[in-house]
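Q: Sequence in, structure out?
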Amino acid sequence: MTEKLFDVVIIGAGPVGENVADRVVQGGLTAAIVEHELVGGECSYWACMPTKALLRDAAALRAARALPAAGRTVTGDLDPATVLARRDRFASNWSESGQVEWLNHAGINLVRGHGRITGTRTVTVTQTDGTTTTVQARHAVVIATGSSAHVPPIRGLADVAPWTSREAAAVQNIPTRLAIIGGGVVGSEMATAFSALGSQVTLVSQSRLLPGVEPFASDQVATALRTAGVSLHLDVEVTEAHRDSGAVYLALSDGATVEADEVLVATGRTPKTKDLGLDHVGLTPGDWLRVDDALAVVDDGGDRVGDGWLYAAGDVNKRVLLTHHGKYQGRALGDAIAVRARGEEPDLSPWGRHAVTADERAATQVIFTDPEVAAVGLSAEAAAAAGRNIRVVDYDLGAVAGAALHADDYRGQARMVVDADRNILIGFTAVGPDVAELLQAATIAIAGEVPVDRLWHAVPAYPTISEIWLRLLETDRGSSAVKDSGRADQSG
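A: Exactly. Output:
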């Protein structure tokens, strides 16, 4: 056994752990990251990057076909092998060498093996050959192990060797028939990708599609998937699964049966906390980690573990299960740990330098389906459930000149949710082709708590899709200056 001492020890070398370590080192401290898989984590190899690479070619092809002249120049369908080859490049061919090189350049120490908490500020790392290293932290231990796919206890499902998001993201052969269990983000995006790559896709969801977004966005994505040939079974459950002669059969609660070559389970995430030694600090292994506003791990009573030396960032604390928000937490936490090490107090006031206020008030998400869904802040339903006095303003994106120029027969919708008492934006959702780039403007308005009256003076360029902001504001005011009559405005 060997022993090592650092200022901060981080368990998990995904984007969240890397951001914590980077900020700690920039703050003048030493940091070690413990990792037993690929440095770079889920996002780099099995989620964000490879899945979006799977989707991008199909999106570009649809964009070209939405214009008459460009569409005539496009012949044939996507070549799956070429799409997968580009995906491989964005997954670095599942090589971590570039990520390890970055750690070295940043001055971050890498400790190989599986890390477990074995005492106060102490992590024991077990290598594949069974040897162990004890890593001690002077100031803090941070858990940034993320989450993994949840496989529900459906009778027979484990026996059919189902895919999870990892197998889908790293697929080498496109199945002729793919069944997807789950209608959330992963299920909807993979239905979009695999149908474009030639699979006959069937999706089964126990709720409506994309239950976390505004219903109008869910409906437009469902319509588009059906148009693309995806068979949707919504508001039903899979009750049993079995494999026979190579095919997978799913029995549904409405009496129907789905037959496929492979089945992808996309029913949510579970925390990677089962084997971290949480019992040594009075916590239950396998649970999501509860944290306070400083991201310090707390027990069921809300008290910090020990004297507050244990932190959790990213998926594992279940605040927002999105990579970019995990990285945001990592940046704030790394800076705060460095501040505390200097004997100072971090700024945890709302929107303060070390706060993670955006997790609750301005969480952002893009769903890369066809059409895209972009959302930030609260939905109308969530705002009403929270007791907020709100105004809901909707507008047809297809009636905006920039959208009409962007694609023939452009279909989309945008919604802003306004806090009527403070007259500030607290939620925004858009659905339509290429709406992702609208999101940052809404995020700035929400995070900056910009009064709606001030937004009138943020003049959108004409003719762009961003003109939707003017139309939403006019609708909110009840303006009759412009009459679109369901067509793209041509007045400028």
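The chain has a mean pLDDT of 95.
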